[in-house]
Amino acid sequence: MVEAPGSPLAADALAGRVAIVTGGGTGIGRATARAFVQAGSHVVICGRRPEPLAAVEAELGADACLARPCDVREPEQVGSLLDEVAARHDRVDALVHCAGGQFAAPLAETSMKGLRAVHRLNVDAVWDLTQRVAERWMIPQRQGFVCVVGFSPRRGIPLMVHSSMARSALETFVSGIALEWSAYGIRAVCIAPGLIETEGMLGYGGQDVVDRFAETVPMKRPGRPEEVASLIAFLATPAAGYLTGTTIAVDGGADAWGLGTAPPDLEPGTA
Questions:
Q1: Are 45 and 69 in contact (CB under 8 A)?
Q2: What's the first-to-final CA gap in the chain, in angstroms?
Q3: How far apart are CA 114 and CA 249, in angstroms?
Q4: In what order do the strands lie in the sheet with 42-47?
Q5: Is 2 helix (H, G, I), strand (E, B) or coil?
Q6: Which residue stretches of the chain are H helix?
Q7: Dist CA 174 CA 246 (whole Å)
Q8: Which region among 23-32, 99-108, 116-125, 127-136 has the lowest average model confidence (pLDDT)?
Q9: What pLDDT, in 10s, does the model give residues 174-212?
């Protein structure tokens, strides 16, 4: 019989647990690392740039947070990271994939090389790291939680078709984990954020662009990284123990509304 969970709002809701958060130096990843530590968990964060990782480690404290540079696309770097995790912790309870990247480009101008670069980071690296963590810790301990970050709206985004395509693969991935790895007590959920005001989003054109996009969101504002992170932390608690294999949109109603903009004009000569 499954024991009734404690309150997910308690300060010790994740006490004694260990989480790996990729992309943990900025944006949603940084907020997620903070939320896990606030709930009593230890975290291991990684990313490509050492400076923001070091800042997060200093904020959260070296006892609670281990920060290491790691390009999750590179198998040797991933192996070294996991060896360091094993040297410090005897378990991993949660794996949160916040590392990701893409570029704005029309479909007709996106090369195969560009497509593969995006998929290598957003799909291949997620597949590789998840399998390694599951094999090393989660399957033997018969318990674990995997969270991946997708996109909303979930039906494709202009200028981001390559990345929307990659993120939709993650939704199928978490359902596959639920189908095959529930036997080991492993759960998986895809979080599909919409417009979230992060450094990365602001990099596409600054506050004016974010504010303009916000007009297409039913709630008429961008989300905050903490609003995504708090949900991820909750999902990692026993209180969410019956939730797996699904996608949750955190987008102010954007997925329900659609793209919220008029379609482009037809090009000359189009019937």
A1: no
A2: 63
A3: 26
A4: 65-69, 42-47, 18-22, 94-97, 144-149, 186-193, 246-250
A5: coil
A6: 27-38, 50-60, 75-88, 112-119, 125-133, 139-141, 161-181, 199-202, 207-214, 225-235, 254-257
A7: 7
A8: 99-108
A9: 999 999 999 999 999 999 999 998 887 777 778 888 888
